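Exam review. A common question shows you a sequence with its structure tokens and asks you to describe the fold in words. Practice with the pair below. Do the first one on your own.
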Amino acid sequence: MNVKNVLQRPKVSIVVPIYGVEPWLRQCLDSIVAQTLKEIL
């Protein structure tokens, strides 16, 4: 693994537990998509 590959990796992992939360899942996913921290992508 070289330095360039390490620097291009996302800095944050997002884990979304989904069991039994279907009523709030859309709101959760919309919130993740609307984030503004560009280094996550």
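Now try the second one, then compare your answer with the model answer below.
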Amino acid sequence: MTGSSTQGIKTVLHPVTDLAKAKAVYAALLGVAPQTDSSYYVGFEAEGQHIGLVPGGGPQGMTTPVAYWHVPDMEAKLAEVIAAGATVKEAAHEVGGGRLVATVIDPDGNVLGLIQDR
């Protein structure tokens, strides 16, 4: 394997149809109140994991949960997984605070997320 090491899965986003109902279930499951609570995103921090709820799958049209691997070098990791057979679903872009996100599709159609924090 070449390229930079992956830091691990620290973020999982879940598309939801009813944000209020989902928020109650995840708060009960995780035992914490959300740290981010808006009409377009609810995020929980629990045990070093970030669990996000995205109403209607958000602008990216999520239909299943997406696990995000935190990587030190987005460009290098994207090149590595594309060379290995993945295809880009959502190109790397900033989502605020210097955070870059991207998604790729593996050969079986699974969506994999990548996050690079500055």
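Model answer, second protein: The chain is about 20% helix and 45% strand. Residues 73 and 116 are 7 Å apart (CA to CA). Full marks require stating both points clearly.
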